[in-house]
Structures are given as structure tokens and as C-alpha cells.
Write a structure and sequence with these properties.
Four copies of one chain form a homotetramer.
Chain A (H helix, E strand, L loop, with lengths): L1 E4 L5 H13 L3 E6 L4 E6 L6 H6 L4 E5 L19 E3 L2 E3 L5 E5 L6 H14 L3 E3 L17 H14 L2 E5 L6 H5 L4 E4 L7 H9 L4 E4 L6 H12 L6 E4 L18 H8 L13 H13 L4 E5 L17 H17 L5
Parallel strand pairs in A: 7-8, 7-13, 8-9, 9-10, 10-11, 11-12
Antiparallel strand pairs in A: 1-3, 1-4, 2-3, 5-6
Chain lengths: ~325, ~325, ~325, ~325
Amino acid sequence: MIVVMKPGASQRQIDHIIERVEQLGLRSHVIVGTERTVIAALGEKRDGAKQALETGEGVEKVVPILAPFKMASTEVKQQRTEVKANGLSVGGKRIGVIAGPCSVESREQILEIAEIVREAGATGLRGGAFKPRTSPYSFQGMKEKGLQLLAEARAKTGLSIVTEVMAPEHIKMVAGYADVLQVGARNMQNYPLLEAVGESNLPVLLKRGPSATMEEFLLAAEYILKQGNTQVMLCERGIRTFEDHTRFTLPLATVPFLHQTTHLPVVPSHGTGKASLVATMARAAIAAGADGLMVEVHPDPEKALSDGFQALTPPAFRQMMAECRQIAAAVGRDL
Amino acid sequence: MIVVMKPGASQRQIDHIIERVEQLGLRSHVIVGTERTVIAALGEKRDGAKQALETGEGVEKVVPILAPFKMASTEVKQQRTEVKANGLSVGGKRIGVIAGPCSVESREQILEIAEIVREAGATGLRGGAFKPRTSPYSFQGMKEKGLQLLAEARAKTGLSIVTEVMAPEHIKMVAGYADVLQVGARNMQNYPLLEAVGESNLPVLLKRGPSATMEEFLLAAEYILKQGNTQVMLCERGIRTFEDHTRFTLPLATVPFLHQTTHLPVVPSHGTGKASLVATMARAAIAAGADGLMVEVHPDPEKALSDGFQALTPPAFRQMMAECRQIAAAVGRDL
Amino acid sequence: MIVVMKPGASQRQIDHIIERVEQLGLRSHVIVGTERTVIAALGEKRDGAKQALETGEGVEKVVPILAPFKMASTEVKQQRTEVKANGLSVGGKRIGVIAGPCSVESREQILEIAEIVREAGATGLRGGAFKPRTSPYSFQGMKEKGLQLLAEARAKTGLSIVTEVMAPEHIKMVAGYADVLQVGARNMQNYPLLEAVGESNLPVLLKRGPSATMEEFLLAAEYILKQGNTQVMLCERGIRTFEDHTRFTLPLATVPFLHQTTHLPVVPSHGTGKASLVATMARAAIAAGADGLMVEVHPDPEKALSDGFQALTPPAFRQMMAECRQIAAAVGRDL
Amino acid sequence: MIVVMKPGASQRQIDHIIERVEQLGLRSHVIVGTERTVIAALGEKRDGAKQALETGEGVEKVVPILAPFKMASTEVKQQRTEVKANGLSVGGKRIGVIAGPCSVESREQILEIAEIVREAGATGLRGGAFKPRTSPYSFQGMKEKGLQLLAEARAKTGLSIVTEVMAPEHIKMVAGYADVLQVGARNMQNYPLLEAVGESNLPVLLKRGPSATMEEFLLAAEYILKQGNTQVMLCERGIRTFEDHTRFTLPLATVPFLHQTTHLPVVPSHGTGKASLVATMARAAIAAGADGLMVEVHPDPEKALSDGFQALTPPAFRQMMAECRQIAAAVGRDL
């Protein structure tokens, strides 16, 4: 950590910071520059040290040197993590595609879609049974009945089930039916939930919150890893910006950035929120090195109970898969 | 709702949308313009109608006319809501000030701060016992022990206790000690939690999420109101933008905007995250019409276990209160 | 245009708006809904009508139906525009790659880089002679001497020269040496400059401003088109968001979105501002359908006089080109 | 400057950076930490050094210690700058109010408004004669005729004229009529224009660009100061964020932040872009310490040729002034 003193900081203020650094169990190293004094604080990273120091009198700013996450970091584990959940595998040579409706709506709907996406090459089936909705007046999902239908779809197709869990008290129930627990973007910093999925023994798909930095995203993953669950997929689903022609801005540079920073696999989703852009961005995601993809498919999007505007029709999904396969081959992956 | 068809939409596509509008229980009204056809869908607002229509073939966009929230709206209730929690009152002529440390750290600390803020004119005491922290390695709060200390501080000072609740299963415990349940910014869209605080009979302080629009913020409040709990305060704590000289950008125009849109009281906080800016922004907030204020106070910020960088020292808090009192008088309020 | 009246708007207010609509040369069409009255204003789009109406008493909002740009729109011209500047062609089957240093620094530097990028398959040579720099203390470019060196590089390699013009009074000079005039992101809304490049007879590469919406970007292009210059390339170079792990957030969904909205070709650049991410994002851009690419190449990035941190070394550029060629083939393009 | 090496950086890489630091004329100082090596580069700040170093092999990041602006900084000049332009004075005890229409539209309009704002207490008259407009189809201003009308209004009222200049070649003409040259937000990084207004001997009102950081804003001011023109006012007019209930987000914390960072006076404007919010935010701005205010006034906003939606009517302006006077008194200022 580097403590930068204000120009004109007094010797008393500098001495005080040196004393504080040492009280925090760190070694201090003073550098007197032409205009300012800088104090390096060396040693094992200590959470809280940064803020303790930056409130000191005469301090201009404190610059951390080490990333605050550990278990998620490539510094700690260089071998890439491959997440496996029955037939779905994400993080190896093969790109895992998770497809399905926004919400489970009926037995016919989910079984039909499951068959379609399996035939087209998906290995995971998504479908919400517990749906976090912006409005309390919107359809909130079929709850356990939806989970049962997902399990039935798995039995028929062999697809792995990826479904959202919204509260710690639901985990046991959801885990009874699902192969992967999804933590939604709205819950990326719901720490009791992160700890609870960390204690489960199911793989987790963690969605990035719409205003989360990479550091916050990886610290959220760290909450899960810290409980002993190493099977975490990072889902880039887009961020909130001033852009109004898409629902979220999908910043695909997070894919190569995360590949440099963490060993966890990266799975972009249909973040633009516009069906007409989803397939093109899926191709781009694979070209950027995505380990998996998550997209929505619905046989009749205009009758979907939620988010039909971003769902692909079955023919559009098949075409997307064919195109993505070409791109995957061009970057040395399978799909 | 206004459905705008693409230029060149076919009559068949137009007819299909008219049919869909009617299937959704709405009346359709077609307007043929010089370059496009527009279909108005009239009737009671129906959630899901917008997205059902916007996935239709030949549709360019769907423009909603009505706000999606109801109970929070000034259209439904014009009389301003005044939230009362023992001595703390927010939404009337008197501005309620909620002050205290980020976290409860010890008996001495919380009792000392409680006395200081009460003397300076605060009527609410804040202090975290359950702390949502970005890093799993940070101090997570004293939990129930912290709540007991808050209750002790109340007994000595008469201040109302405002403290965060992070999970539905903690509400009963927290409600046993607190006067106001705080829902943190990270949990603004944690719907099970919103519903649970809605079912409690305590007032709620709901913090705006860092990327929440006004519509999302008011729909989050609607989740609480819908459970029958009408005592909701809206806390503007700043948004995530590209600005890097503050922790969050504090957009004070939300204060007058919310006053036009909702009857719920508005309480800005120390959103800039920099102690050197907090007092000035508190003055600005009151000039903008704030119904309350939330700020952090710590007797020794550099030894605070969390967020010391944004805490005022006792003298700084006293000065802030004196200045705010002047501004309150200038806008016809008391403090 | 749709004028939405406030709930409770009086008949007098409604009548006034109807009168205003007609004064503006539009036809009015009133729709009385269950909670609000809406007035459609039909006819040729009239600039200024929106804001004239939205200041009316009793008006809640005005929703425009038509896009404000015309000549840039696929509604007006459906055939895709192919921009040609000597050997560089952008917008056809072949993807045009524009590569070179941030700044022209010396005769040796620019001739060496020109040779390298030509061999690797680029058809355009970039290089700044007039450099807009955030700090007045930074290197500002070699000015006309730099242009002469670019022209010499063209003579030796046949590459088309793409270089920035910062002021109308420089256009004549720059046009004496360059094949394409670049308008930088900082100048995207410098209207005298846009009009001046519109009056030149050289193709223009227009960079998106860091906070420009698609509508603003296309209206900036419209300024150029309106002067009779139809040879405009749109360069997506990234936007300003809260993300801090890249210099700009590169929102590649603009590529397919612009392909749906305008006939002008789209050329993403090295927007992440990090050399380690540039090649991967170039692949992704091509998968997203980019018509061209703009990247920086420098033989010794750490000695570059500007922006070395985002420049590829010659070997990295060659590898990027090889990878991009694979992706181009996968999407049916040449490179 | 602090150069942070990657974990595992080789001694050869470290030695290379030390050599580079010294080649750049700086002294190096190596600190070996538990996990990383850090190299401090000491000496006079050298532009370009940061980027030269951060492209070095084995370098993780380079952290600058000194702000890149000098003349704008309170480190260089501690005495606050007071800008004076005839009757308008900004930066002293008295708050200067600049009011008037978005555009000069006619002799009657500008003379009427000038009289109104003068009577209410404004000392500056704004009014655009050259108007940068997002759409090329919008009203672009009356040009020199508008300037003549502004000068006539000054002759009648004594108000100082503040008007925008869009291009260096117009400065001579505009300076013939105006008292203050305004540089618009779209031109904040139009460096030839900044240098040209820097060479004029008129005070400058520099508007913040919608995505400019504080550092970029102050460096833009530095371009003007560097030419010898010390009379610069900084106008905070709002930033582009995801918020959609205002035109721009007005981040008033820039007022106290700039007061800590620069000696130049700060003048917030009607940045929310909504007439119903302007007066409230003007009060908040003054409570935040604003040295001046810029607002739009129009006798008949719905007939304004530009931006009527954010203009106050004369009665609303008078009321705003009365309220602001109360707030000014509460913070020890006059208005």
C-alpha cells in the first residue's frame, strides 16, 4: 500500500502515519519526493488498513498495490477452473451453451424448449422458477412446481438444469432439482445468499451486478469460494450505462480481462436485452474467448410471461448455434 | 401504451397487433401517420402487456404512458407521508437527522457517539450490527451484541435506532431492538427481503441501489408498501458513474423529482464517501428540500472498523448541524 | 409525436395543446384513455415541435416517433454505403484494416511501421500529425512535417492515409496529404468542423464521442452528409462508464445496432486502451460484423511519444491479423 | 510516480524499468514488498513518463502521485481567483447570476428578458447567437445579428454579456460585442478553441463536458490559463449517466471538490434540463458554495426556438432569486 501525503504535510503528520502503519502490523518505508512524501506500507495485506490510513491527517490518498481477492485470483491458482454439472461443462475446450426460457411457464413449454435446445447443441437448460421482477405486479414464477418441471425436462433430455435461487431458505429446495444454482445480478452483493450457495455442493453461476466493478464481481465470487465451493462460473450480463438503445451495455472486454485475472470460467449472456442483437453478440462473445453462453429461447416470444423481447425463436437459436460453431472453430474451441 | 410500428409494417402485422392488444384486455386505437402507423392500447395498465407487444413482428417500440408503480405515486395518494419512529420524524416540517457510526464497535464507542449526536440535535442513531461488506475479509459487524448496545444507547439518549437488516431471517431479531429497519443499497432489489420488511410493523429506510433508476427505486418501495407497510423513507445515497473523485455521485435533483412523483419522504446520505465533502452536501441537500439526513459520525475516524473515510468527527458534525440549521430556516424548515 | 397529458389535465390545457400542434403545421388526433389524455401530432417531422409542446402546461411528456436523422438512416437509403479511399475500402465484403502509430514521430518510425502493417494486410495507415491531447503539456504532434512523412509512407507502400484534422482551418492542408479525414471523439460535436469536412471531398472517419448516444452519433454524421459528403465511416471507440479496468468500455452491440439503423459502415477501434485486450476485441469486433478495424501499432511501444500503452508490437499485430482472418472467414468476410 | 511490477516480475524486467526511469530524468527508488516489487520514480513531473513506463514488460500499473494540472491548482496559487467582467463578478462574496434565454431570437425578446433579469438581480445576461445544436435541422442562432442585439441589451441594462463562441475564427467578432466568452460543453476538449480564447483578453466561462472527469476539466482550463488568460470560470452543467428522469445528472459535490482543488470560481447551471427542477437545484448549488449561477429565462418558454423545456418564466425566476438570496445569506454570501 502506498500512502501519499499532501503537499506541505508536516513532519508530525508523517510520523503519525508511520506509527499507524506499524500499529497495523506493516513495515513502513518513507520516500521523500520533490513535492510530496510517500510512505510505502509493506507486508501481508490487511483489510481495513487502507481506510484506516486514508483518514489520517495530512494524507491525500492511499493506493492499494495488491488485489483484495485471493482465492479467485490467478496469482493463487494458475490452473483454469473447469466447472462440471452433469453434461454441462464450462471452462474446458468445449463451450457450454445454457439456453431456455426466461421463466418456466408450463409443462408443455419447458419440455418443448428443452428438446429444441438440446437438439441444437445446448448442454444446459435455463428456466426461472423463482423470478426476481422489478415490479411486484409482474409474474413471479411457478416456484416449486416450476422446479419439478425442470427436473422432468432433465429426465427427458439429459440437459443440466441452471435455475435461480433468490434466498438462502430456498437453496435446499432448489438444490433438490437443479444442477447449477444461479445467483442473479440483483443479488450479486446479497452476502448471506452468496455464503449459503457457497455452502451447498452445487456449482454456481454468478451474474455480474449492473454497476459492479471487476473487483466487486470477483469479491462476490470470493464469498462463495471462501465457503469451500470452487465451482463458480462468472456471468457477464451487461452493465448500466447512459446507452439507451440496448437494455444493458455488454462490455465484452471483461472476457479477456477476467481470463487474465481469474481462473474461473466466463459465461456472457444475452445482455443487450434485444432479440435482434443477441445472436450477433453471442458470436462476438465466443470470438472474445467466452467459456460458455447463456441465452433465452422461447417458441412464441410474444406470449412469454417474462422478457420475451430478448428471447430467440427456435429457428433463430439454431442459426445462432451454427454461426457460433464456426466462430468456435476459428478460435480453436468446440461447441 | 403506444405501439409504434416500423416503417413499411404490413397490414397483416398491424392487424395482428390490434388482435393482440384486444386479447390483452385493452382497447386499440389506430393512428395512421405520414410515415408510420401507431396503435394506442387503452385501458387499465396490464403488466406484461408492454413486453408482449414489443416482441410482435413489425413493431419498432412500445412506449408506456403510465408509471408502473401505484401505491408510491402522488397520483394515488397526494398527502405527503410522514414517517414516525419514536422521537424520529421524517416528512413533516422538522428535518430528521440520523447520525452515528458506520458500525457499532464497542459499548463505549456507541454510547459516546449517541450522546454526541443527540446533543447536536440528531433524533435518530444509526449504527451497523449486520454489515454487508464488499470483501469477505472485512469486519462484518457485531451482530446481536451490536443490536443490544444500540438498544442500550436508545435507553440512555432517547434516540431512535436505525439499523440495517440483511436477511429475512434476521428481521425478528433486529426488530426486537431497532425502531427503523434499513435496507441497504446492495439489497434494494432483494425482493424476499423487501417483502419481509413490508410485513414487519416497523418503518423502513430504503436505500437507492447504485444503478437504480427512479422507476426501479419506487418499484422497490412498492414491494414494501404492497405488504401493508406505509412507513417508508427513501434514501438517496448516490449512484455509480464515471466520476472518480467521489465514491458515489450524489444526484440531489432526485430530491425535488421524488417530491413531485411520490408522497414518501426523501433522506439523502453521505453519498460522496469523502468526509471533506459531507457537510457541504448536507447543506445542499436541505436546500434541495430533503426531509431528513443520514450521516456518519465517529470520535476517531482513523480507528473506525469500517468506512472511517466518510465519517465526521464530533466537532465537524456539530458545525454541520449549525450550518444546516441556517439553511433549514432559509427554506422554512426546522432542524 | 405523442403528447402525453398529466393526469387531471384540464380541458383548457388539452385544447391549448391541440391549438399549438396545429400552429406547428401538424394534424392533431386526440385519444382519451382511462387515466390520461394523449394527443398524437401527425405530419412531417418538424424540428423544435417536440420541445415547443413539452413546455406546454399540463403536458407530462412528449414522445417522438420518428428518428431525428434522415440521410444517415436506412429508411432513406437501404443500400449499404461502401467508403473507398484509394486502396482502402470499408463497407464491402472485404474488411478494411487501418493500422499505425498513435502519432507520427519520425521518418524512420512511420516508414518502418507502414511497411510492417502493409505486409500484415492493412490497407490504411493511421498516424496523428495534429494530436488533441488532454494535457497542454503533452506532445501535440509534428503538424505539417508529420503529414509530409505520411505522404511519403503512402508513396512507398500504397497504403491510404487516415489522419486527424482538428480545426476547419487545417482541412486544406491535411487534405493535401491524406486520403481520409479523421474527426476525433473530442470533436464529434464540433459542428463547424463537421460542416467543413462535409464540404471537403475526402472520405471521413467519424469517431463516437465518449458519452454520445446512437442518436447523437448519427446526427453528427448527418451534419457531414448534409453538406453533400456521403463517404462517412462510423468509428466506435468506446464509451465512458464506471468501469475502471479499461480506458473506455467498448460496447460492440453498436455494430449490429448501427447495421440495422444506418447504411454507413462501422469501424471499431482499440477502445479498451490496453494492449493486452486489443487483439481479442478485434476478433470480437469482426465476429460482430465490423466493416473495418482501427488499431495502433508501434515497433517500441514503451518509447512511443503518445499512447504506447494501447499499441501492439509488430509481432502482436501480425498474430492479430492471422486470428482476425479466421474469424472473418467464419462470418463470410475477407480480410 | 509509483511503478508496480507484476508478481513474479524478473530481475531483468525490474532493472530495465529502473534504467528507463533514469533515462526519463527521474530518480528511482526500489521497494521490495512481500509479494511485489514497487519502483518509485522521483523528480519533476514529466508528461509521458507514466505511459512510457506502463508499457514496460513486467509492469502491472503505474500510479501517478502528482496532479497533471499546475496553473489551475491550489498548490500553485492559493488565493481564490475573482473573475470580473464589467458589472458581473464571480468568485468574491457576491454570487454572480447569469440569466437569459437559450438563444437570442429577436430584439423584443432579448430586450424584454434583459430588463426582467436585471430587475430580479442578475448581473450577467446570457443568450446564444451561435448555437451548437445536436441536429443540423435545428435553429442555429442569429449569428452576428444576435450579437448586436446582445450589445444593445447591455447598453440599456448594464448587464455583462455572456455568449458562446464555437470556433476560433469567430472570436474576434464575438469579442467585439461580448464581455465573457462561453466555451460550450461539446467543445470542452476543442483545444484550438481553448487556446484561442486563452489568447483573447476576455474572461472565459468553460462548461464541463458531459463525460469529463475533474482532471480533464481542469486540464481544459489549463489550456486557457497557459495562454496567459487567468480569468476562467468553471461551469458545472451536469454529466451523462444512466439516469433518465433528468437531461443530465447535476453532481453538486463538484462545487466543494473544485473549491479544494482549484482557485478558479465555480458556476453551476440548469443542468437537470427540466424547468420544474431548476430553481430547487439553484438553491442547492448556492448552499454547496457556488460562486455563480447560470439559468435560462424566457417570457414564453413554449415558443422558445431552443430548449424552452428548461427555461424559467419571469415569475419563476423572480421567485428563484428570492429563495436563493435566503440561502446565500445562510452561507454568508450576497446575491
